[in-house]
Specification:
134 residues; four-stranded mixed sheet; 4 strands; Endonuclease III, domain 1; 43% helix; 6 helices; single chain; alpha+beta
Length: 134
């Protein structure tokens, strides 16, 4: 007997199921069916896509999972905001995605510790002159 093992990501399936509960994406699905949603299509796997990018519903846990996966994988080596957005936008789309990626990277602890100061040291404190007149 010959057995084959096929590994599939469950992330797309989670997104597809969550799309059915998102009111905005359900409205878009109805508009696709009547031809009034330019750029949006229903893919053969049942997901709604915008310019061939999977539409992620407004579920914070799902977005965080996508951001964690894109940022913390061993192959990505903690990319900055611009690189992470560039990588994720090839596959995923959601409203205000660029800002959410920037916020995610800014909150990441490693970046807060490594961030350098771009100002010259202030030096020693100088006492103020005592005023002669009130």
């Amino acid at each position: 007997m010959l057995y084959t093992l096929e590994a599939q990501s469950t992330l797309i399936e989670e997104i597809r199921l969550a799309q059915t509960t998102d009111p905005k994406l359900e409205r878009i699905r109805k508009e696709i069916l009547v031809g009034k949603a330019p750029g949006f299509v229903i893919h053969e796997d049942g997901t709604i896509r915008f310019h061939n990018r999977v539409c992620v519903p407004a579920v914070e846990a799902l977005k965080k999972k996508i951001l964690d996966e894109g940022h913390n994988t061993p192959h990505s080596v903690h990319p900055g905001g611009a690189k992470l957005y560039k990588d994720l936008k090839q596959t995923f789309w959601w409203s205000n995605m660029k800002q959410e990626v920037a916020d995610y990277v800014a909150k990441y602890l490693t970046y807060q510790r490594v961030k350098i100061e771009h100002q010259r040291p202030a030096g020693l404190l100088q006492p103020l002159d005592v005023p002669e007149w009130k």
